[in-house]
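Recall the central idea of this unit: under ordinary conditions, the amino acid sequence of a chain determines the structure it adopts. In this exercise we apply that idea directly, starting from the sequence alone.
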Amino acid sequence: MLFYLPFMCLWGGCFGIIALVICLVRRKPKADTIYAVLFAAYLGALIDFSLISGGTLSERRVQLVPFVTLFLNLSNGRVYYLKTMLVELAKFAPLGIFLGIKKNDAKKILLIGASASLLIEICQLITMHGVCDIDDVMLNIAGTAIGLLLLRKEYKKQ
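Accordingly, the structure predicted from this sequence is:
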């Protein structure tokens, strides 16, 4: 996974620079510019991590029954799958934070997270890059919710 970090930074940086140029041309306030650059960099890294870095499969694989992948991997002693689950949660938590900063409606934020996750899974199916798995969608939605909850908890402290 560390091997892909430079590529994620490259794509994130490219998206961030594009957002910076757009904000400068439109003369956005400093806070909006920083938000746009960070959000664009996150989206670039997310796209790279989910769709570009790594290898492709030799066949299309789809898993539409929830928790099958989880049970199969854990019952076969593949504990590394827990790490994969944490990665799925963690890669969408920033989405909940970014959207929570600009929007207050939790239902819309979770719907956007679900839509983004479904789009990624469909792209993985089409490009044969990764497995199209319903567990990933559920974990990504949960990650979006976790990010939103962390943001709201931090706002309550202030």
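The longest strand covers residues 62-63.
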